Amino acid sequence: MKSPVVKRSIVVAGHKTSVSLEEAFWNGMKEISGERNMTLSELVGEIDSKRQQGNLSSAIRLFVLDHFKSRAAAAGGADPKPHAAISAPPNS
Question: Is pTM, for the whole model, over 0.85?
Fold first, then answer.
């Protein structure tokens, strides 16, 4: 039986790391990075720099979820609140 989680190596801030995500989240990340004209590594680096807590895989999942929730709400006219763990500005 094939595992639903896919582990990939990615360069984040100049360092190689591995990230384990379900294929649906990898597909979401590819779609978002394409919309933003960024590489996956650039997008993951952005997510990594903004996360407040938790591991990188969790931060990516929350980011993808918030992205598509916001898109759906915009299409329906609602005003969603993004997840605080990735949307709050870093403490100065």
Answer: no
